[in-house]
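Q: Here's a chain of 118 amino acids. Please give me its 3D structure as tokens.
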Amino acid sequence: MSYSITLTDSVFQMTAENARKAKKTLKEEMPVYQHFNTFSEIMSELIWPVEMDEDENVVGIQFEGECLYEEEKIFSLLAPFVEPGSFLQILGERGSMWRWVFDGETCTRQNPTITWPG
């Protein structure tokens, strides 16, 4: 069973040095990715391809496919390397909304507060 999610907005940034550290952490914590050479390759395999600039800094992220149900673990591992203020805004297939928000140390899931006028 899978769950479709859509990335509706994001700011996702990481220095080139931190991308190398994140790659090392992912390979240590998730050995199935040992054979990948770059952070970008690992993220593409995880169906979260990243955009990189000419200096190998991560400047964006995309989402392709069905939810892996490992996102919380993946983003927790990446959290110390992601620039504070980065976030991923998600819309679930049943209308649920949330953000994964990075503060430079951790990644937390935040649900929106919806207010109706009147």
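Q: Can you summarize the key feature?
A: The two ends are 40 Å apart (CA to CA).
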